[in-house]
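pasting for the record
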Amino acid sequence: QVQLVESGGGLVQAGDSLRLSCAASGRTFSDFATAWFRQAPGKERLFVAAIKGGGSRTQYADSVRGRFTISRDNAKNTVYLNMNSLKPEDTAVYYCATDRRTVLPRTSISSYEYWGQGTQVTVSS
């Protein structure tokens, strides 16, 4: 079992930056592909970014490429999402997800078996 806890969300203005953290407990997840998804009110949960297990290969949604950066610190068993130039349309609950069966980063919700509870990000205009 892997427990994931997200943190770092908050209320910011357009153009600001935030860093989200996803801390794992229960077992190390450094070898697992890990991703961030987000869900805006009344909308489906969407892929944001993913990082390869044990490595630095990454994948991003077109809507955040160039503004967001996903990274991992294996020593801290934590994955980060650095978000720059935030826009009101980035407002959502952000979820961290990981999967012990997957090394390569994937974009589909069904690829991930462990999920955190989410952290709210609100960007005002």
